[in-house]
Amino acid sequence: MCHSADIGELPGQVKTAALVGVPKLVIFDCDGVLVQSEEITLSVLIAMLNALAQRETMLDVTRFIEHFRGRKIADCLREAEQLLNVSLDDKFEQHFRQQALEALTHSLKATEGMIEVLEGLTVPYCVASSAPRNKIEHCLRMTGLLPYFEGRIFSCYELGRWKPDPLVFLTACDTYGVDVSDAVVVEDSVTGIQAAVAAHISVIGFGPAHRHSQLAAAGAVPISDIRQLLAIFN
């Protein structure tokens, strides 16, 4: 289905090597793809962790936003306990999720051009995320995207396996009756890209230019503007 080619430039962007051919299903990640939530929620998490840390062990915000991006929060917390030499109880994650939802409510925005993409796609699409369903729905509701994804949401929490495990992507393909060779995943994290590669699904890596080498090394075709999808698929 997919071959390598150049697509046209968008204003202020370089020409990008991209996948061409119309897929039968587009699977979007939520955080960092549909909505710009990763920096918001992970900034909250790192601030809460640093409040418990000694000065010499405090986490660098920029570095650990990238390090934790796309990963299961429980795994991030277990790693943070070792890095900071602290013990986190169950209430910490609950408190974090409450603060993160409040921050998202005040600051969350849909990715620029996302509604244009959703209205321009001529093939089925869905969202497959490592986040809990209530967070996915909250993010989509706050940004006006929920009507586009009602009945099209797949959460790792409901499957009991998280990216980079490919199950959430395989479940989406199975639900839509689409072979993995006819699907495309759009991801912003190395963890998510690894899940798509493990599922043998072509993957597009969405992120700013300075992350393109990281996304490409993980196995994705990088793009900087979500509207490039319309040029790739149509």
TrEMBL record:
Organism this protein belongs to: Pseudomonas pergaminensis
Family assignment from sequence similarity: Belongs to the HAD-like hydrolase superfamily. CbbY/CbbZ/Gph/YieH family.
Sample GO molecular function, one term: hydrolase activity
NCBIfam families attached to this UniProt entry: HAD-SF-IA-v3
Keywords: Hydrolase, Magnesium, Metal-binding
The protein's name: HAD family hydrolase
Cited InterPro entries: Beta-PGM-like, HAD-like_sf, HAD-SF_hydro_IA, HAD_sf, PGP-like_dom2
Known cofactor(s): Mg(2+)
